[in-house]
Here is the input.
Amino acid sequence: MTAALDKLAQRFVPTIERVAALEHNGKRRQSFVEYHVEPKTVHTMLNGKRCLMMSGYSYLGLNGDARVSAAAQRAIDCYGTGSHGVRALAGSIALHRELEAAVAHMANREAAIVFGSGYAANVGTTGALVGPGDTVFLDKIDHASIVDGCQLSGAELVRFRHNDPAHLEARLQKSTSDGLRLVIVDSVYSMDGDVAPLPELRAVCDRNNALLMVDEAHALGVIGQEGRGIEDHFGWSTGVDIKLGTLSKAIPSVGGWVAGSEELIAHLRYRARPFVFSAALPPAQAAAALESIRILETEPWRVTQTQDSARRFRSILTSRGMNTGDSETAIVPLIVGSDEQAYAYSQACADRGVIGLPVVSPAVPNGASRLRIAITAAHRESDIDTALEVFLDAAVACDLLRV
Ligand code: PMP
Here is the structure.
């Protein structure tokens, strides 16, 4: 082995040791187990056993919807499976334009742009808006793609305490830079299911001459009367300056989006590097996303049912003593304690036929490991009842709850 390869191998050692330790304890990360999630249902095959999936992302229950799959198939028949590279070369097709118009309408903005992923949308947008001399203020638990976007941009990174507008204000007041000041938050936090306090954040930004950008990844299709995200959630009383999201969660496709003024979107088309230098969204994925947005707009019951089911699920669990943190959306964390406790609890649920995937440190703080549950429109009342029974029974069996 060359010295360089040897040096590289040393970097792998801590990871390999950690995985080996977990596997030795029989606590293998379930997230790397292969699931065969049945489209159109909330079931999945795990080791030959059919289980109820309670940690999926398809909030609107549209993954496998016949209309969405047919739209994707039509796009394949028409364009094939590839995207011919970047949009500025051969990559643009009519579907991209239609999808961007649909996203802009849904987001209540003049224009929109779509990227290959939500991660790319975050990294590309932040990098195109700010740079050295500017300052970005991030909530302590903002998604990794927001943090990465900020770090790559070269702007100064300042963190403030989670969902704490007063702390943000103190940070803004302390900052002396005269460049752009950009505050970025998640609308809904992916590991906790709590919502950013938008009116207070807006007021702080206005008082301190800062722009406000939100990541609607877990908000679109989930919060608000029509499922149109955080502005809808707060009754359209408060606006944000820039909003973006993903097409891989409530919208069962892949891709990311940004919505805003014509000028903002024109700027991103030329300056957002993942848009300029990375392949366009494939036709099937663009068509699936477009059809799903149409369904979101015409079938509002999907949003209401998910919100109602999540409320019932959460209130029964908390009344029995489970810790669901500050969740108020379709994401309901079942916070249990150590990494090992979360793995054991997840396994006990799987043994009883229900999948709740564990999320452990460093994705969440030490001692706050959890199962991350996501309620969807595809879960029927009886599915929620089954899940409740199993989560409670397994919690007692794992000594997390008393009978
Ligand atoms: N933002 C948030 C808040 C997310 O949770 C995620 C995905 N987990 C992303 C961005 C990235 O989206 P994508 O998976 O489409 O790249």
Observations:
- The first strand starts at residue 36 and ends at 37.
- Residues 117-119, 122, 143, 145, 186, 190, 215, 217-218, 246, 248, 256 surround 4'-deoxy-4'-aminopyridoxal-5'-phosphate (CB under 6 Å).
- The longest helix spans residues 3-24.
- The radius of gyration is 22 Å.
